[in-house]
Amino acid sequence: MNNNEDQKCELGQSLSNRVDALESGMRAVAAGHVQLVAQMSEITVTLHRQDGLIDENAEQLRKLLAASSETNGIVRDIRDAVTAGRVLRGVASWLAGAIITASAAWLAIKGVFVGKDGV
């Protein structure tokens, strides 16, 4: 019977060792679960903050696009004014030449028909 008792002790110790190992593993799993829950909570809070930042950035982008559109309109108006100035300068140059030519022709015609004594 001594051999039978030794087997029971070995089985008891073996079973006790297995239970201890299972309990240790379960404690590790439970600790990991607690850590996982904490990490998921942090991620959730971070995502909510990021959503707010994304909304703020989207609003700023809308404002920048509106300002850019307004600036493009102003630049287009300035470009049109500069182009109109160039065209008017060309027209004024042409008109000045025409006026000078007409004046010279008028003086030449007047000088031929009026005479030298001014009558």
How many strand segments? 0
For the termini, the CA-CA separation is 166 Å
Shape: rod-shaped
State the low-pLDDT regions, or none: none
Largest beta-sheet characterization: none
User: What proportion of the residues is helical, as a percent range?
Assistant: over 70%
**Tally of DSSP helical segments:** 1
Radius of gyration: 50 Å
Share of residues in strands? under 5%
In round numbers, the mean pLDDT is 86
How are helices and strands ordered from N to C?
H
What does this protein look like?
The chain is rod-shaped. It is mainly α. The chain starts with a helix and ends in a 5-residue tail after the last helix. The protein has one helix spanning 2-114. It is built from 1 helix and no strands.
Record the SSE blueprint.
Blueprint: H1 2-114
